[in-house]
Design a protein that fits this description.
The structure is a homodimer. By secondary structure, chain A is α/β, with parallel strands linked by helices. Helices cover about 35% and strands about 25% of the residues of chain A.
Chain lengths: ~240, ~240
C-alpha cells in the first residue's frame, strides 16, 4: 500500500527545490537500489512490487500499477526507493579532481560520475549551473556509482583560484594529451556540451589539453563530453598506474 | 507546403522495414543536415521553416507547425531532411575495424559511430541484431559522422572466421589494455550493454583486453560500452600515433 501523501512526496522529488527541502532523492531498479543500500547513503523508504519482499517500517509492498504511477521511468522497474541526500565532506586538496563547467545533460553527468568511480576519482566539483546530481535521470545513469563519488556544487572560479594544483582543461586546440606528463594531484576541467569551457574558467587553466583527431581531418563536432572525459581520465590513470 | 503523401512517407521512416524499401533515412537539425549534405550521401528532400530558404525541386518551405508534425524529436528543429541510404563498399581487410555484438541502445551506437569518426576508424561491423544505424535516434547521436564511417551488418562469426587480423575483445577479466602492444591492423569487438560479448564470439577472440579499474575495488557495473570504446580506440591510436 502507498498513501496519497507518499505519492505526493515522491512526485515532488522530480524537482530540485523539493529534493533540497526534503533532503531526499529517488532511485529506481534493483541494481541501482542495491548499490546504494550497500553504501553509506541511508535508505529512507523502499516501494516494491516484488512478491518475495518482506514489509517493515521502511519497506512497502505495492502493486505494479501503483509502482507505474510513482515511477519516473518510461518502463517502470520492480522497485523505487527514497534515499537521504548525504552530507558531503569538505573539498579535498589532493588527488585527482574533475571539474564540470555548466554540464546540462543528465545522461552526461551520470556517465561522468560512473567514469569517476571507475577511474578512482573521489571528488567532482560542479559549477552551480551544472545539472543537479540527484536529478532522477542522473541517478539512473550513474548505475549506483553516485554512492562513491563526492559531488560538490561550487563557484568554480573561486575554487580554482583557491587551489594550488595544476589545472588541465579539455579544449579544441591544446597540446596532445598523449604527449603530456600528467601529475597525480591535479584538476581536470570539462566544459559545456555546446560552448565548451567558459572564458572566465579558460583564463584559469594552467594546461590546455586536446584529444588528437585521427584519420581524415574535418570540422567535425568535438567528441561528446562524456567520451572525452573517458579518454582524459584513462590517460591520467594510465601514466600513474604503469 | 508539405503533402499528405510526403507526411506519410516521412512518418513511415521511423521503421526499419520502410527505410529499407524506400532506401531513405531521416536527419534533423541544421548541424547534422549540413554535415550530410557536405558528404557523399545524397539529399533526397529538405523540409525547412527557415525564412531565408529558397524553394527548389528538393527544398520545401513549411510552417513550424507542419515541421512539428513530421519531427521525430521532442523539440522540433528548424529543418528535417531525407537522405538516400548509401550503397556501401566491400568490407576492407586492413586497418582498424570496430565490431559490435548486439548493441541495442541507439544513443550508444550513435556515440560509437562518432568515436570511430574521431579516431579515424572507417569501418564498423555490426551483428545483425545490433540496432539499425539509420534509426533516427542513432542519426542524431552521430552528429553527422555517419557520413564518414561505413557501417556493415553481417554475421559476425562468419566475418571473424574469414579474417586473418588479430581480434581484440573488451571483457571484464582480460589483460590490461595499457600493457598491450597494439597493432595497426586489428579488429576490436565490443559486446552487448547487459551481457557483454556472446559466448560464440568470445571463442573467436585472439586477445582479451580490459580497462583497469582504479581506486577502491568494488563490484561496480562495468563501464558503459560507449565510454569503453572511447578508451580502447584512444589506446589503439595513441600507441600508433606517438
Amino acid at each position: 500500500m502507498i498513501s496519497k501523501s507518499q505519492i505526493k512526496l515522491i512526485t515532488s522529488l522530480k524537482q530540485k527545490k523539493y529534493r533540497n527541502t526534503e533532503g531526499l532523492f529517488v532511485a529506481e531498479g534493483p541494481k541501482v537500489i542495491a548499490e546504494l543500500v550497500a553504501s553509506k547513503i541511508r535508505l529512507h523508504s523502499l516501494f516494491t512490487s516484488e512478491i518475495s519482499a518482506v514489509e517493515d517500517s521502511t519497506t512497502h509492498k505495492i502493486s505494479e500499477l501503483e509502482l507505474k504511477k510513482i515511477s519516473f521511468l518510461t518502463t517502470a522497474n520492480s522497485s523505487l526507493a527514497l534515499f537521504e541526500i548525504p552530507q558531503i565532506s569538505e573539498v579535498k586538496k589532493t588527488g585527482l579532481t574533475v571539474v564540470l563547467d555548466a554540464i546540462r545533460d543528465p545522461g552526461n553527468l551520470g556517465t561522468i560520475i560512473r567514469l569517476c568511480d571507475w577511474f578512482g576519482v573521489e571528488q567532482l566539483v560542479c559549477s552551480t549551473d551544472t545539472v543537479d546530481c540527484y536529478n532522477p535521470k542522473v541517478i539512473q545513469a550513474t548505475m549506483g556509482s553516485i554512492a562513491r563519488v563526492q559531488v560538490h556544487y561550487l563557484d568554480v572560479q573561486e575554487y580554482l583560484n583557491s587551489s594550488n594544483l595544476p589545472v588541465y582543461g579539455g579544449v579544441m586546440n591544446g597540446n596532445s594529451i598523449y604527449a603530456e606528463t600528467l601529475p597525480e594531484d591535479a584538476i581536470v576541467v570539462l566544459g559545456n556540451e555546446a560552448n565548451g569551457i567558459s572564458k572566465e574558467i579558460m583564463g584559469l587553466l594552467t594546461h590546455k589539453i586536446t584529444i588528437p583527431q585521427f584519420g581524415q581531418r574535418h570540422d567535425t563536432e568535438s567528441l561528446n563530453v562524456a567520451t572525452a572525459t573517458a579518454v582524459l581520465l584513462s590517460e591520467f590513470r594510465r601514466t600513474i598506474g604503469t
